[in-house]
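User: Some background: our group keeps a shared notebook of sequences we're curious about, and every so often someone picks one and asks for a predicted structure to add to the entry. Today it's my turn. The entry only has the sequence so far, pasted here. Could you supply the structure so I can complete it?
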Amino acid sequence: MTIAKDLPLHVAFIPDGNRRWARKRGFAPWVGHKAGVNALEKILEKALELQIRFFTFWASSPENLTKRSKVEVEFLYRIYKDQFKRLAKDKRIHQNQVKVEVIGLWQKFLPEDVKKAVEKAIEATKNYGKYFLTFLLAYSGVDEMVSCIQKLVDLAQEKKEKIEVTKELVKENLWTNFLPPVDLVIRTGCEDDPHLSSGFMMWDTAWSQFYFSPTLFPDFTPEEFEKIILDFSQRERRMGK
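Assistant: Of course. Here's the predicted structure to add to the notebook entry:
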């Protein structure tokens, strides 16, 4: 497939539908999460093929890790541990110089062995900069903005004077301060309720385009991803003009 116009520099992905996919098949919820991992691996390959430089994936919110059953959450922890250990050694990651980053309250919520796996992937790729693969773990956009505001308050108190709050200063104090604005947000599993959740990347999606797919995430294919990128490339982005 030929991409007609501009590629998005930064794609943010919200995977929805793992549990519904499992429920429709009579499986436990964690079977859907495992199927979602398989889908993600194929999508990441396609993103590299299409040369999407920044790919951000929302893996969980704090509520996902605190309001679901202990069995399901423990399974998610095992998935995180296995996948980050794999990323640290993945030849494709190193050949393509993909920098792995993790944003959110993961250090607060994850068990020590899982945190070590995450840190290992970050450390193994810290010197790369050709592509950026960012995971949002225990992430909430509301938490991110509260954290940013608190940092600005602390800065003003430290300086003991009034500070000028600019767009640049806000961005510098966000968890996503190293990421460019999101060009395209893709959310799967939206049959009749297209929506965002928990203030998802609210600052960085101010001018984003959106694509809501009815496909449940485990069934989401690289081919559908490519079609969505083509759709984006043909859109006119007016940016308020």
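Suggested note for the entry: Strands lie at 10-14, 54-58, 98-103, 131-136, 184-187, 209-212. The two ends are 31 Å apart (CA to CA).
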